[in-house]
Amino acid sequence: MISPDPTAYDMAEHARRYARVSRLMPDVEWGAHFDLVKGIEELKRQRNALILAHNYQRPEIFHGVADIQGDSLALARAAAESDADVIVMCGVHFMAETAKLLAPDKTVLLPAPDAGCSLAESITAADVRALRAAHPGAPVVCYVNTSAAVKAECDSCCTSANAIEIIENLGAPEVIFVPDEFLASHVAANTSVRIIPWRGRCEVHERFTGAEIKEYRSAADVFVLAHPECPPDVQRAADFVGSTSGMIAALERHRPERAMLITECSMADNVSGAFPDTEFTRPCNLCPHMQRITLPKIHDSLMRMSPQIEIADDVAAAARRSVQRMLDLGGQRRS
Ligand code: 13P
Ligand code: SF4
């Protein structure tokens, strides 16, 4: 029996992956990534590693080396369900921490340890304790874009895909919701639960304006999809408001001729291949933290098995409860 030639397989796989980015990237650029992509694939096999990539990652990572792509909830669940020994999180620090909470026995690598998030940095565990003291009896729900130390102080975690569902399923008349004030106003507009917000903001989404959308709309008929981290006037001007996975599902349902994604702009690059009949137009804001992950850093991280995510046992136990509560309250569903 002739065994398959692994080099030939690599080339076929490489060509298949290029087909997904050929509209965005000249083949010379894709070729320039070849050695690193091959090296990362080899290290993945040696380490029994799984690469997870958030929807905002660079196309050469998203299409070139990722085994699983998705929103923050999908990535955390994939980490827990995988039988890999090593998880490489191509995303930001809170995503790597969440993966570690759900997969405590696995080694979780974050190739750029300085990949933070303005929302996660907007609130501390002490801030949550002070909010609880100011509003006795109100449960605290934290957005997944928070540190493990903050999650440890909360009753349940949520993501943008399930925030409304989690808050309603708590069954309380008022809920403290941290830290994103714009996601809080989105939830408040869609539920009868009274929301006590914090004043955190995403430095990327807060820059979009409703006026920009109106300007685009006056020039062309366009289906507008906005992330709920955008300001309220942007959300009001959009045809659909939802998480990154929710936006993809809405595109699948509507198949618009022209679409504008009001979110981190790598996402339109990453999903455009799956919607060849849709023309994507968008104002472009990049997340500097997401962009810190690069192919050389992924390769280096797998070589050195560093930097690894570690969470103190007492913090991890309490934070895991808050993530588990989200899953128990029905956080499996997507919106
Ligand atoms: P999603 O959970 O929708 O992927 O969003 C995460 C994020 O950081 C958006 O800015
Ligand atoms: Fe954080 Fe905003 Fe970047 Fe998402 S886009 S990781 S919320 S800074």
Question: How would you briefly describe this protein structure?
Answer:
GO terms for molecular function: 4 iron, 4 sulfur cluster binding; metal ion binding; quinolinate synthetase A activity. With 335 residues, this protein is an alpha/beta fold.
What does this 3D model show about the protein?
The chain has helices at 6-21, 27-32, 34-47, 59-62, 72-81, 93-102, 125-134, 148-151, 163-169, 181-189, 210-219, 232-237, 244-254, 266-272, 295-304, 313-328, and strands spanning 49-54, 68-70, 86-90, 107-109, 140-143, 156-158, 174-178, 194-197, 223-226, 240-241, 258-262, 279-280. The protein is of the alpha/beta class and 335 residues long. The chain has 3 domains: 11-116 and 290-304, NadA-like (Rossmann fold, 3-Layer(aba) Sandwich), CATH 3.40.50; 120-201 and 312-328, Rossmann fold; 205-281, Rossmann fold (3-Layer(aba) Sandwich), CATH 3.40.50. Strands 2-1-3-4 form a 4-stranded parallel β-sheet, sandwiched between helices. It has a 4-stranded parallel β-sheet with strand order 6-5-7-8, sandwiched between helices. The longest helix has 16 residues, at 6-21. It is globular. The model has no long low-confidence stretch (mean pLDDT 93).
